[in-house]
Write a structure and sequence with these properties.
Blueprint lengths: L1 E3 L23 H16 L3 E3 L16 E3 L2 H6 L10 E3 L9
Parallel strand pairs: 1-4, 2-3, 2-4
Amino acid sequence: MTVIGIVGQLAQGRASNIPRPSDCGNGKTNFMVYLAYQEFLQKNRHIITNFHTKFPGGGNCASSWSTFMTAQEIFEHFLDEDYEDALICITEFSGLIH
């Protein structure tokens, strides 16, 4: 099992003058989804996320390339053999720690 963790901030500088919403993040989760999707395409890896992915599976938060589990479910199945070659993507990890 492999876990992707993107911590902190991606570069804050912007070379573009294109406006974006003030509540918009800086792309960490989008970058993680890109990396995971590449692993799915190139290595046919099982991808598990604690958030819903929408492309290219389409349809109301459905996806044909990733499996949604809550963080608790991921933790419960972390050592299962069925997920030995899975790639785990967890977003907003700091919100899971109490």
